[in-house]
Specification:
The structure is a homodimer. Chain A is α+β, with helices and mostly antiparallel strands. Chain A contains twelve helices and five strands. Chains A and B meet through helix 1, helix 2, strand 1, helix 5 and helix 6 of A and helix 1, helix 2, strand 1, helix 5 and helix 6 of B. Strand 1 of chain A pairs parallel with strand 5 of chain B.
Chain lengths: 249, 249
């Protein structure tokens, strides 16, 4: 278990990649491992779009707010909830699919995300570095256009993939008992919150982050700058419209 | 890379567990590895509820349609999208959270699912067996009651965990090119569907499955028996109501 322990415990997100390409056979091998992840009823209601072409990456870049990894990484992988293939199979087999609803979207999203994360572990085990782009759900409508995703298909996660050209510090995490509950959910008092966030708030990088953003507390950097109510509400509308247009609402 | 390759390539879902308990330190170690998974903006908007108590498992069992793994596994893990802790932190730090919307739910669900899948890989690497219960989203309202999940928290995945007492055959998967698209989504013609599903449909277990369910095609087993339109629509309503009640819609 030691090797995998090291990989999982010491992992860090990689945003800077060397020029070395990712071999096609290696990538296929990694994707095969990803597809061994659990899938609802073995329906495999997901698709993975592999982007290597530099023009295509340039088209995708604005969908990810021009984060430089999109064009600098050798490979971009877009993981999609996909009932289109399954529906087509049903229709070709005298079966009437009933997957044009929210539950089916969420089922397919779970499938896609389990594959995505398994691909990440497999990639990191091979020495590659990955970065998730949280922008996928914000601009799903534009990604659908760029990648030509038909009805029944919704992008839910994107990762950039390549050989690491950096070795960043590992970022912090809350203590395990902040996120784990025994038997029942044990809700958080203000005192408990103070204890659980103490270490995070005491970090010099947190303090720098507050100062850079001209805020008083670290939490304000999230609520006022990084993930604002206004943005969240706007992108909620966009994403719900995508679900409707793609036939899930 | 060999060890992890073996683990990821040869994995299979385990539904039968030995009496041997899962050591608390081992479980914590696995959960720690899970929490190293990528998380949106390092917000860690998820929680994990650990169920070991047999009475609690009995309470959970009907939420999972009494699948026997719930009571027979030494450990049941419920992974939740959780903005409650983050919101409480914000409110205690003069920050006004804006996470009562669909995008925030989906962000937290992604976080929770990446942790869940990393926990599964770590568990399997330690020799444990896991099984995902697809019932979590169907009965989220009941799980919320049993586990006492407050507003801001929604269960999105459950796994049972234990030492394997079986070595089942590995189940089939579609060929890789069924789910992978190069540069753009390449939609499926009926001919392509025939090719991609040929091997699956020719399997003796598929034929048995059709016969057992008195159906004409394998697809009909899914549409008419396992994942029907009626059920999907019913559970969509339940789940959307849960999102509303928990403050995300």
């Amino acid at each position: 278990m030691d090797d995998i322990q090291n990989i999982l415990k010491n992992r860090r997100t990689i945003r800077s990649y060397s020029d070395r390409d990712v071999d096609r056979d290696l990538l296929n091998d990694i994707l095969e491992m990803g597809c061994r992840a659990s899938t609802t009823g073995n329906m495999q209601v997901y698709s993975i779009v592999v982007t290597r072409d530099s023009d295509k990456k340039k088209e995708l870049a604005p969908c990810h707010f021009n984060q430089p990894m999109v064009t600098s990484a050798p490979v971009v992988l877009t993981f999609c909830a996909d009932f289109n293939r399954f529906n087509k199979w049903c229709l070709a087999r005298e079966a009437v699919p009933g997957y044009d609803n929210f539950l089916s979207f969420f089922t397919a999203a779970i499938d896609a995300l389990l594959v995505a994360q398994t691909v990440c572990v497999a990639a990191e085990a091979a020495g590659l570095g990955i970065c998730y782009l949280g922008t996928t759900t914000y601009t799903a409508d534009k990604i659908i256009e760029v990648l030509g995703l038909p009805r029944g298909v919704v992008p839910v996660a994107t990762i950039t993939l390549g050989w690491p050209a950096e070795e960043p510090e590992q970022v912090d995490r809350l203590p395990l008992d902040a996120v784990v509950h025994e038997e029942e959910y044990s809700d958080y008092t203000n005192e408990k919150i103070d204890i659980l966030y103490r270490e995070k708030e005491a970090r010099s990088d947190s303090k720098l982050f507050i100062a850079e953003n001209n805020k008083k507390t670290l939490a304000q950097v999230f609520t006022d700058v990084r993930y604002t109510k206004k943005d969240n509400e706007h992108f909620s509308e966009v994403f719900l419209k995508v679900l409707k247009n793609q036939g899930f609402l």
